[in-house]
Amino acid sequence: MVIQHSPCGVKIVVLFLGIFQVTESLFIAAPSNVTVYNKTSTSLQIYWTEVNGIILGYRIRHRSNESIPPVADSNSSLYNNSSLFVCKNQTSASLKDLEVYTYYWVEVRAFNNEMFGNDSTIKRFRTDEGVPTSPPLDITTSTENSTSITVSWGSVPKRHQRGEIIGYIVTITDHNHNTGDWCEKFNVSSDHMTITLVDLDKFTVYYVTVSARTSKGESNDSAEYKIQTAEDAPDDPPTNITISANYNINFSYITVRWGPVDGWLNGILRAYKLRWKQVTSTANHFEKTINLTSSHSRRKRSVEYSNVAETRLTNLSIYTNYSLEIAAVTVKEGKYSEPVYFHSPEGVPLSPPGDVTSYNTSSTTINVTWSRPEENTTQGKLLGYEVTYTPTLKNASATRRVMLCYRYTSFELKNLTIYTLYNITVAAFTRVGIGKESELKQTWSDEDKPGAAPQNVIAVSNTFSSIHVSWDPVPEKQRHGIIIRYEVDVYGYENRYQNVTSTENHTAEIRGLEMFVLYRIYVRAYTRVGYGKNSYPTKC
């Protein structure tokens, strides 16, 4: 060729070839067909078609949580990203340690010694689902009636869903079932966030949990939520009803005793209801409700209560044939027992309440306790108690009386005189009258701090460094107890505490004082409870 013989031509050819090579390196094609063939909840296996041309390998970059695709440029299209490099003979790469069920923008670029390719292919892929890391929130439970409850819940927090929530599982457990722990699970579709559970046992404590599930599995259960079905009427009446009669010359009463319900109570036993009538009468029944205190209330569904309940019926016609029926009461009245027949009636109690004790609880209060009179001496329906108390140093006009309901077996006497001896008795009464008083109990109200300061405080300087202090005792009515000692406080002109001397006498010698200093002297008395008021300052 002529060009081969021309030096200029050769240069031109060489220059042309150099331009051709540079141009080829400036146009590296983007990998195509970028796809994902395998993925897990934390990894993506990226595949692409091989790029023709002179390249050294591929750079794979990814970024998460972007809904808008990044803009590609020749320098860098994914900022805040992670990069992975593979050789040119490799057309796949595994992105690991990714977030579960998260979209990622993935860019694959070819590169050579001089540059990355001008074009890039950016695609969006999502990792696979995982198991939710949180149960639903905002769980609430409500009681519908005695056999059904409703459970509601909110969503699983977005960051904990880790996939599409396809349903919920509600678990209900009875830990105290008569056959051991009982548990049942209910599947709820994802478009429902509430369920009403029916055909449950009456007045039973259940524990409810809720979990969420994706295609990969079920989340942990929520915390247990305690709920109780509502109360209902007892299934059966009381059992083992017995009746005994007691008499005196003028009145009589009958005592009725019965055992617990032999079956499901279905609630808190609040009362027993008795109804009776004369056998030959066509009138309506007489009725009586025995309300139970909390200590006697049964809270179990099954029979675990062995105490025998009892009451007395009064205001009966003497020696008359009656029939009696008893029902247990929760929020509703249960079934009545079969009739029990008895003959009938009452007087004042023959014996006082027993085990009377009294003790002070403060300087102005005394607590009095007692037990019920013996049942065979009450002679009627015990209506209550009369507590009588009188200061021993005063006449009968100072006597006070308190009438109490029969449910009380203790009472606190209040507003008493401080450190005073009281005479105390307790008597029971029926509707007929008050019975015999208990033996006299004498109890002091407690001591208190003295109510006044020592009187007539006198301070005399005996020497340049000592002061003799004397005083009269606290007035007797304001001592509020036994004076066990006195305290003398001495303060100098700078209000600096100088000395404290405790004494059981009415004089004190204060030594070690400074000369020519005017001291202020206070005296106060102590009982077992504490100290009283300071005297007015005496200067010396």
TrEMBL record:
InterPro entries listed in its UniProt record: FN3_dom (IPR003961), FN3_sf (IPR036116), Ig-like_fold (IPR013783), Type-I_Cytokine_Rcpt (IPR050379)
CDD domains: FN3
Pfam families: fn3
Keyword Endoplasmic reticulum assigned: no
Any one Gene Ontology molecular-function term assigned to this protein's record: cytokine receptor activity
One cellular-component annotation, GO: receptor complex
Signal peptide from the UniProt entry: 1-25
Fibronectin type-III domain sequence ranges: 30-130, 135-232, 237-347, 352-448, 453-540
Keywords: Disulfide bond, Glycoprotein, Receptor, Repeat, Signal
PANTHER family hit by this protein: CYTOKINE RECEPTOR, FIBRONECTIN TYPE-III DOMAIN-CONTAINING PROTEIN
The protein's name in its UniProt record: Fibronectin type-III domain-containing protein
Species whose genome carries this gene: Desmophyllum pertusum
